[in-house]
């Protein structure tokens, strides 16, 4: 497959020929880009954990035991080193979450489209034998 | 689906509306904290929301009270909105590249 992926956005004035899907409809059923979604979530999760760690370092000791995150994120601490470790962990977990979300959403969409199309085809050919 | 339509769908990729995504995430995350806070208030007990109250470290003014749940909603709405905008912006930038 050498065709380039085409971003689809809705433009009210967009026109289409009879053998193509209308842009508005294509926009509703277009798949998500898993890598792009993974990177977007990686930026957000990594950034949030970094900012939270930095804020807690600047604020000083609190009742909140944020170090407990090390139960899941090995090596994480509320420290300077923890900022970078937290960034890596957050980005990694965020990427997996975003990528997984896009994959599952695309799979669900594919199943739905296949089901709708199969039903439509069955309805279309339901009276096939009657016409013979 | 083995037609030109299938190829069109396979080669298309969705572009996100950043503001809409931000608003949706904001309402969702704000509502979650609002409901969680009020659930604990209604549940009652000796130390109402002792752990949830620790959110005040990040959200100054937040308490496990009804008024606190409104403050928490505001904080989480803003946070969710910003997260949505960032996700939308990064995603669209990569998709359009």
What does this structure look like?
The complex is a heterodimer of chains A (132) and B (97). Chain A has a domain at 33-123. In chain A, 59% of the residues lie in helices and 2% in strands. Chain A has three helices and one strand. The longest helix of chain A has 45 residues, at 80-124. Chain A starts with 5 loop residues before the first strand and ends in an 8-residue tail after the last helix. By secondary structure, chain B is mainly alpha-helical. Chain B contains three helices and one strand. The longest helix of chain B has 31 residues, at 66-96. The radius of gyration of chain B is 20 Å and the shape is elongated. The chains are: A mainly alpha (132), B mainly alpha (97). Chain A binds chain B through residues 1, 3-9, 19-21, 26-27, 29-33, 35-37, 39-41, 43-44, 47-48, 52, 55-56, 59, 62-64, 98, 113-114, 117, and chain B through 1, 4-5, 7-15, 54, 57-58, 83, 86-88, 90-92, 94-96. Strand 1 of chain A pairs parallel with strand 1 (12-14) of chain B, so a sheet runs across the interface.
Q: Which overall shape of chain A is indicated by the principal axes computed on the Cα atoms?
A: elongated
β-strand amount of chain B: under 5%
Give the overall average pLDDT of chain B: 91
Please summarize the sheet with the most strands of chain A.
Answer: none
**Regions of chain B with pLDDT < 50 over 5+ consecutive residues?**
none
* Largest interface: chains, residues each: A-B, 39 and 25 residues
End-to-end separation of chain A: 40 Å
Q: How does the helix and strand content of chain A classify structurally?
A: mainly alpha
Helix proportion of chain B: 55-70%
**Helix and strand succession of chain B?**
HEHH
